[in-house]
Amino acid sequence: MRVGIVVRAEPFPEARKPAYKLWIDFGPLGQRQSSAQITDRYRLDELVGRQVVCVVNFQPKRIGPFVSEVLVLGAYTEDRHVILLRPDLTVEQGSRIG
């Protein structure tokens, strides 16, 4: 698991369930993209610049016309909304989760 920063976020209307396309910069590991079903809790404008925790060693998964390369991690609330995981303080992009 690594920490990255969302550098771009767009709607993903082709997804079966409401989702966003995210581009996440992991510093020395480069930029990766992900599809995230977080539309019920987050707006696009509040995602850009946000640090997130991701699993980076999964096989890429094609979701319609988009390839998701990492899994953005979150915890579910009682009403099944995803709350994204992030460090309490800003850390370097690409930092390992220990």
The number of E-state strands comes to 9
- Span between termini: 8 Å
Question: What integer is the average pLDDT?
Answer: 96
Which spans have pLDDT < 50 for at least 5 consecutive residues?
A: none
Tell me the overall shape.
globular
Order of helices and strands: EEEHEEEEEE
Main pleated-sheet profile: 5 strands, antiparallel
- Portion of residues in beta strands equals 35-45%
Helix % is under 10%
Q: How large, in whole angstroms, is the Cα Rg?
A: 13 Å
Strand order, main sheet: write it out.
Answer: 3-2-1-4-7
Helix/strand/pairing class, anyone?
Answer: mainly beta
Q: Report the total helices.
A: 1
Describe it for me?
The chain is mainly beta and 98 residues long. Helices cover 4% and strands 42% of the residues. The protein contains 1 helix and 9 strands, in the order βββαββββββ. The chain has one helix spanning 44-47; strands at residues 2-11, 20-25, 31-36, 51-55, 61-63, 66-68, 71-72, 74-76, 82-84. Strands 3-2-1-4-7 form a 5-stranded antiparallel beta sheet. Strands 5-6 form a two-stranded antiparallel ribbon. Strands 8-9 form a two-stranded antiparallel ribbon. The model has no long low-confidence stretch (mean pLDDT 96).
